[in-house]
Design brief:
heterodimer, A: mainly beta, 11 strands, B: 116 residues, four-stranded antiparallel β-sheet
């Protein structure tokens, strides 16, 4: 089945630093979604990407849909304590409606 | 505008009992998806339903698990004769018509099932 490899698995950073994480796959995806999950809650949608090469921002978050359609990255600029959580990438394959999720990147911020 | 609602938030069952998890999609959404999440892992797709129809159940275990989305009322994920390995967080998501853009899926808060 399709798999998404998300890296890094965890990050420990200082408040104010920029963060970068990415997802890669051997399969082509038509849609990339980035979610954030906090303890005891469901994933919250951050950014949706629909076209190869697309670069989309949501406040301090920026995500890109890779040209090959097999990868995506998420950047967070000037991190703040409320950015703490687990970030997941998820992809949709042409003709399918089931999301394939990465393993998540756990972000910890030292104030 | 209420989001996706799931209940109960926490459910404890003894081995062999049945678990029923409920999901009400966002207003205006007629497509529902169920996912399972084990600790420290990503979400895994189980089943995709429209009203009164199962569209894709490729991620659903063949035995003991079933799902429905009736014409009236919430979607139900039913697990019969639960075993310890069924302990997980179960998330429901909904979307408007996924054949068109946007294709985002919005998640509920989840039901945490513990089998003792």
């Amino acid at each position: 089945g399709q798999q998404l490899n998300q890296s890094p698995q965890s990050m420990f950073i200082q408040e104010g630093e920029d963060v970068s994480m990415n997802c890669t796959s051997s399969s082509i995806f038509n849609t990339w979604l980035w979610y954030k999950q906090e303890p005891g809650e469901g994933p919250v949608l951050l950014i949706a990407l629909y076209k190869a090469g697309e670069l989309t921002s949501n406040g301090r978050l920026t995500a890109q849909f890779g040209i090959t359609r097999k990868d995506s990255f998420l950047n967070i600029s000037a991190s703040i304590p409320s950015d703490v959580g687990i970030y997941f990438c998820a992809g949709l394959i042409q003709g399918a409606q089931k999301l394939v999720f990465g393993q998540g990147t756990r972000l910890t911020i030292n104030p | 505008n209420a989001g996706v609602m799931q209940n109960p938030r926490h459910l404890v069952r003894r081995r062999g009992q049945e678990a029923r998890l409920r999901c009400s999609p966002m207003k205006g959404h007629s497509h529902v998806y169920w996912y399972r999440q084990l600790p420290e892992e990503g979400l895994k797709f189980m089943v995709y339903l429209q009203k009164e129809n199962i569209i894709d159940e490729s991620g659903m275990p063949k035995e003991r698990f079933s799902a429905e989305f009736p014409k009236e009322g919430p979607s139900i994920l039913r697990i019969q004769q639960v075993v310890r390995g069924d302990s997980a967080a179960y998330f429901c998501a909904s979307s408007p018509n996924p054949g068109n853009y946007p294709k985002e899926q919005y998640f509920g808060p989840g039901t945490r099932l513990t089998v003792t």
